[in-house]
Amino acid sequence: MESQQLPRIGFIGLGNMGGRMAKNLHNAGYPLIGYDIDAEKCGALAATGASAGKDAPEIVKNSDVVMTSLRSSDVFCSVAEEHFVPNARDGQVFIDLGTTGVAKTRSLATALAKKGATLIDAPVSGGPNGSETGTLRIFVGGDASVVEKHRSILEILGEPEYVVYCGRSGSGQIVKGVNQLAMGLGAAAYMEAMAFGVCAGVDPVAIRNVVGMGSGWRGEFDRIAERIVDGTGKKLVVKYPELPYFLAAAEAAGFEIPLTEALYEFCKKGDYEMLDNMNRSSRSFWHELTKGSEEE
């Protein structure tokens, strides 16, 4: 397909994940214009031969498909409410690649639909390496026919077999929640198990050597134990900044996720703030588990 037949893509958010995704789309031949509040990131995109815009409204005006990779639900919603909804036009498609609250996703989808535009929620998992190599897992929600029409774009960013349509608007965000909770609660369980031993006075190296060092769950435990032995346990993440999204979605749907609620409340009362792997303000579960002990 010739370049002029491809939709014009606007990409907002050129950080660790977004910058790599935008580059892959440009390299695949899509006409692409990107924007980030960090001018340096815009310059890096321009150096690849893609265009860099001056602000979000310019991106919306000059794109058929607007994609975003922003660090939080609040940031995405602010950009969408301020720039997307007022400037959207009939037939335009917006694709949110970040993790956003389910209720806000559905509200924005409704607002955009009134302008004749479509919001696809397509949060990703796979980190910077997956973004670089185009092997992300992508959890997709929204109008099925619009999703199918734009599947080829998503398959440049993700492994085709793991670009999965999950259902109506918000469903991609729900399944991203499954993904994040599986990682966060799993990590928290292994940290708490490790804390039980070290706070009771056992050498963490001994615990790792006899409980970890294997495959299956022992391998997952070992990944956590290795960080603790190395002295970087405080930096382990349990997806704390995103837990409120999932708690709110569960409450709205009328069911409970008690482990998630307990983890969030336990971390929330802590006094040790850190930046997580997405440079978001977070709390350290390991610090809270071990404060007052020699392993703090």
Notable traits:
296 residues; alpha/beta; Rossmann fold; N-(1-d-carboxylethyl)-l-norvaline Dehydrogenase, domain 2; 2 domains; six-stranded parallel β-sheet; three-stranded mixed β-sheet; 14 helices; 50% helix
Question: Secondary-structure blueprint of this entry?
Answer:
Layout: E1 9-12, H1 18-27, E2 32-35, H2 39-46, E3 51-52, H3 56-61, E4 65-68, H4 73-87, E5 93-96, H5 102-113, E6 118-121, E7 124-125, H6 127-133, E8 136-141, H7 144-149, H8 151-157, E9 158-167, H9 171-199, H10 204-211, H11 217-229, H12 243-253, H13 258-268, E10 273-275, E11 281-283, H14 285-290
Parallel strand pairs: 1-2, 1-4, 2-3, 4-5, 5-6, 8-9
Antiparallel strand pairs: 7-8, 10-11
Helix pairs in contact: 1-6, 4-5, 9-11, 10-11
Q: What is the strand arrangement across the widest sheet?
A: 3-2-1-4-5-6
Number of strands: 11
Work out the helix count.
14
Per CATH, the class of the largest domain reads: Alpha Beta
Basic shape: elongated
Mean pLDDT: 95
Radius of gyration from the alpha-carbon trace, in angstroms: 21 Å
Distance between the termini: 58 Å
* Fraction in helix: 40-55%
- Give me the CATH fold name of the largest domain: Rossmann fold
Mind summarizing the main beta sheet? Answer: 6 strands, parallel
Q: Which structural category do the helix and sheet elements fall into?
A: alpha/beta
| Pattern of helices and strands | EHEHEHEHEHEEHEHHEHHHHHEEH
Describe the structure.
The protein has 296 residues and is of the alpha/beta class. The chain folds into 2 domains: 3-166, NAD(P)-binding Rossmann-like Domain (Rossmann fold, 3-Layer(aba) Sandwich), CATH 3.40.50; 175-290, N-(1-d-carboxylethyl)-l-norvaline Dehydrogenase, domain 2. The chain has 14 helices and 11 strands. The chain has helices spanning 18-27, 39-46, 56-61, 73-87, 102-113, 127-133, 144-149, 151-157, 171-199, 204-211, 217-229, 243-253, 258-268, 285-290; strands at 9-12, 32-35, 51-52, 65-68, 93-96, 118-121, 124-125, 136-141, 158-167, 273-275, 281-283. Strands 3-2-1-4-5-6 form a 6-stranded parallel β-sheet. Helix 9 crosses helix 11 and helix 10 (204-211) runs antiparallel to helix 11 (217-229). The mean pLDDT is 95.
